[in-house]
Amino acid sequence: QVQLVESGGGLVQPGGSLRLSCAASGLSLANYLIGWFRQAPGKEREAVSCITFRSGSTYYADPVRGRFTISRDITRKAVYLQMTSLKPGDTAVYYCHYGADWGQGTQVIVSS
């Protein structure tokens, strides 16, 4: 059974940083993509970033490119999202996504 567990969300001031973690279990990662999505209140869920687990190839959505960095730990089957220079517009629930599976989400609030 696939399980994705996010952590690391919280309240941060504009310009601050947070590091999200996604612990994956019950799956064979191989060359699959694993990624982060986010959903702000009243908006649709959108892709933020993803990484190919074996090769480490990455993708970033335009709004976060240059501020967010995705990485993975193959041994721990974990994916991380380092978020810097956070803006109020980054406020959302952040979800880890793999195949057809989603984590429960972790809330990020950027506010002064």
What key attributes describe this structure?
11 strands; 53% strand; 112 residues; globular
Task: Please outline what is shown here.
The protein is an all-beta fold and 112 residues long.
Give me the number of helical elements: 0
Q: So what's the overall shape? A: globular
Q: Helix amount, in percent?
A: under 10%
Largest pleated sheet: 7 strands, mixed
As a percent range, the share of strand residues is over 45%
Kindly report the average pLDDT value: 93
What does this structure look like?
The protein has 112 residues and is an all-beta fold. Helix content is 0%, strand content 53%. It is built from no helices and eleven strands. The strands form two sheets. Strands 2, 4, 5, 6, 9, 10 and 11 form a seven-stranded mixed beta sheet that branches. 31% of the residues are buried. The mean pLDDT is 93.
What are the SSEs and their pairings?
Blueprint: E1 3-7, E2 10-12, E3 18-25, E4 33-39, E5 46-52, E6 58-60, E7 68-73, E8 78-83, E9 92-98, E10 101-102, E11 106-110
Parallel strand pairs: 2-11
Antiparallel strand pairs: 1-3, 3-8, 4-5, 4-9, 5-6, 7-8, 9-10, 9-11
